[in-house]
Amino acid sequence: MARTRLYRDGTLVLEDFPVADISDHLADPSSVVWLDLCMPGPEDFAMVGEEFGLHELALESARNQGQRSKLDHYRTHEFLSAYALFVDPRSGRLSTSEIAAFITPRALITVRKDDRFDLEALVARWDESPDLTRYGVGFLLYGLLDHLVDGHFEAVHAMDDSIEQLEDLLFQEGRRQIHAVQRRSFVLRKSLVGLRRVVLPMREVVNSLMRPGTHLVPEPLLPYFQDVYDQVLRATEWTESLRDLVTSVMETNLSVQANRMNLIMKKVTSWAAIIAVPTAITGFYGQNVPYPGFGKEPGFIASSAVIAVSSVLLYLAFKRKDWV
């Protein structure tokens, strides 16, 4: 599956043309080409590598899964590896869609490892800024990075909402809520680790593009890339704060459980103390020796009264201290 676009003199002139025509279009110095490949095979990589003169290490990185977010520099082009992020709002689970990009002076080649990346949203973002198309590949790269980083920010926001829902469950009573907090805390902590691995390296990626000497970003586009960089910093700082917040939630959950256990133990101990009084009295009168009132009705009445009064007094005393 391939998708193509041709810009000439800053204007979109052709779309979805055959990949075999790319060489003819690039013969015009005013042309800029975008080529997208979704889950390409070895023959597709061979064709792209030969057509654009791509380095074999860059092609190998594009073929392999699980690359770190990075920007590699080669003699004739740059290689970008990045991720689109998706967060399940109910469970807080994080999933990723890996995308690679070859950046040449007059072409941007994107390689999607799966079909979850929202390509239509990226194309719509490019079409929303027709006044920037005259900056060629720099404009296409800006749209791609801006789309990815906005997705990172939305993922961080969704994670924040999931943590807020977790906080609401934290102080609810019930065994089911306790298990829900423990399970979701683990899922969110795992998702934040994956989020951090994707978001943090993007700082260096965007910063490398803006460095003098790369010649990838025209000077008029620098403010736009700076805005993307600011978004990356915000997402990074928010991710770090959420990581601390999840840790705090987990520690608070342990404290809440410990307090509940202390309360249960306090109540059990109080009832044990109340029960100990009649046990002690009946045990005393169960000795095989005569005692006052032995074998007589007044003795039974007296012992029963002592049991009842002592138990009531202990219950009232513990109730006043909120032990039962």
From TrEMBL:
It comes from the Bacteria. One of its GO terms (cellular component) is plasma membrane. GO terms for molecular function: cobalt ion binding; cobalt ion transmembrane transporter activity; magnesium ion binding; magnesium ion transmembrane transporter activity. Its main location: membrane. The chain crosses the membrane at residues 268-287, 299-318. Pfam families: CorA. It is a multi-pass membrane protein. It is found in: Cell membrane. Keywords: Cell membrane, Membrane, Transmembrane, Transmembrane helix, Transport. Belongs to the CorA metal ion transporter (MIT) (TC 1.A.35) family. This is Magnesium transporter CorA. It comes from Wenjunlia tyrosinilytica. The lineage of its organism: Bacteria, Bacillati, Actinomycetota, Actinomycetes, Kitasatosporales.
